Amino acid sequence: MNYHFRKATIAEIPQIWEILQSAILRRKSEGSNQWQDGYPNPEVIQKDIEEGTGFVLTDGDAIIGYSAVLINDEPAYAEIKGKWLTNNDFVVVHRVAISEQYIGKGLAKIILEFIEAYARSKDIYSIKADTNFDNLAMMKTFEKSGYTYCGEVYFRGSPRKAYEKILAKAA
Q1: Closest CA to 48 of 67, 23, 35
Q2: CA geometry: angle at 60 spanning 56 and 61, to 5°?
Q3: For residue 15, with 0-12 CB atoms within 10 Å meaning exposed, 13-18 middle and 19 or more buried, which class applies?
Q4: Model confidence over 60-85: pLDDT tens digits?
Q5: Of 18, 60, 97, 153, which has the fewest Cβ atoms less than 10 A away?
């Protein structure tokens, strides 16, 4: 496969929103309440892109995944019930979603690998993320990718499992 990870453009919002809508429906069909409250939505995606934090995973010309990637920008993480592994600069991963046709191919893990490379390119060696308590697929992806469970954070009144991965510095 010919995967690339790059900043998204405003023109790509319709394809990104289609991927997120499928993910929202998939979460609902799995009995999850994650993403069932009108978030994320096209305005959130547009804001991500305008702020330079919206990224797409592509296979050739096709957009097959989406994620928001922020640096040191998640106020909720300051209020963790638990303890982060580090207190240095960090990259935040939000809104990971994979196209319906590509589910089950390990692409969330590939997105995380691209984000690790992005973090290293910015001389940042910590990645923090969170997911809903019932998002078993994402929790498994974090665990397989070497993330450590650090505690709980709260978004819009709901607890979420918080994870961190410390990246090795290049030799």
Answers
A1: 67
A2: 70
A3: middle
A4: 999 999 999 999 999 999 999 999 99
A5: 60
* Tokens representing residue 135 in the block: 């998002």
75 class by beta-carbon count within 10 Å (0-12 exposed, 13-18 middle, 19+ buried): exposed
Read off the tokens for 146.
């070497």
CATH of 3-166, one of 3.40.630.30, 3.10.520.10, 3.40.1190.20, 3.90.79.10: 3.40.630.30
The rounded distance, in Å, linking the Cα atoms of 139 and 155 is 17
Q: Give 112-161 pLDDT, tens digit per residue.
A: 999 999 999 999 999 999 999 999 999 999 999 999 999 999 988 889 99
CB contact at 8 A, 78 and 98? no
| Residue that the structure tokens 């209020």 belong to | 79
Asked if residue 98 lies in contact with residue 56, where contact means CB atoms within 8 angstroms, the answer is no
